[in-house]
Input
Amino acid sequence: MARCRRLAKDYERLAATVTGLHFAAFACLMLARLLTNKFITRSNMSAAHGCPNAANAPQTVGDPQNSDGYRGTRMAQLSAMLASLMQSIRRMIRRRGPGPRENRASPQPVIALVCFLKQPRRMDAAVVIRAIEKAYGRRFNLPGTGYVAKPVPPPPHSAAQVVAAKTPSHLIAVSYCGRRYFDTPPAPTSAGRTALYRAVADHKGFITVDRMGDAPPPEQIYPVLAKVLAELIGPDCSVIFCTETRATKLVDADTAAILKSDIPLDALRRGGSSPVINRVPNDSELAAAQAEARLRWPEFVSAFTGRNGNDLFFAKIPLATGAGGFEHIWLKLERLEDDWVTGTLGNVPRNIPGHRYGDRLRIPIRKVEDWAYEHNGQVIGGFTTKVFTARQQPQKAR
Output
């Protein structure tokens, strides 16, 4: 797919390329014409002296056409004409402007989501088209609607099967293949990502959902790509991969819900959603952790005020469930006011009516139970999380 897009970009410059070749050919013809004229002039001079060719022409003393000064003048004229011609070519190229690739500081990244498969999957175009229709919530291939989804020929030297879906605003392509996406995956950056590395290294096939062309922008097309991929997720899926950000996430029970949310890349960046915490009533350790979080709340506010673009901030809040209890869920912070926090749900709710992953909520600060933020790869806070982590260590040891 990426190769086809690169070829398409090269063809966009075809008119400018042909124009440049035209002027280069014109320059060669002019040079040949000038040399031919000079040869004819010397031949006429030879004939006037009774010589059959220019090589045997006698040098007449005082003849301006046979003098070194004359030849120097002719060469100077030829050089001036060629320089003028080259200047004209440069002016024409500048007037036409650079091609699309010269306008860009760097190549556009491929906008796509990839699902690695544990085993090759048998699919046909009809299955993919039904998944596309379900993701968009409408029928395709109805006359006069502008929504068309059909199989298309794969790129050269590709074993993938491709279905293209066209809407009035954009074009996407779904590819599925029973071969590896790449042979050598990147090494794990930490011990905790060994399972992810192993899943990527062992994949046997893949499904990709690509944006075709340069529109719409990534922030608008990613939710569309993710919803289509969510309809194709199955037990044979192991890892979700974003080609632009290189973010990866192991597939779990929450993956489909995350992909169907409005902020699918957020979970991919963090490697998934945070776990939902089930609390035991009258837990003294958790109560102490919450008290420390409230005591150190000004530290969190100060860090949020001085944050940079890569920092992530979270606040844990309780939300009422349909059974009369509470789920303690993380909120990815977007805004911090004197008495309120605003953010999006960072968990997939288990039993909270009317809420889903990525929903935006505004919660009173007095309800915040814990906080955490990530700065330069280091997590600060997360006091209740430390309690649960410490409790899990003895279980793992057994």
Q: What stands out?
A: Residues 1-14, 39-65, 95-105 have pLDDT under 50 and may be disordered. The chain has twelve helices and 13 strands. The two ends are 49 Å apart (CA to CA).
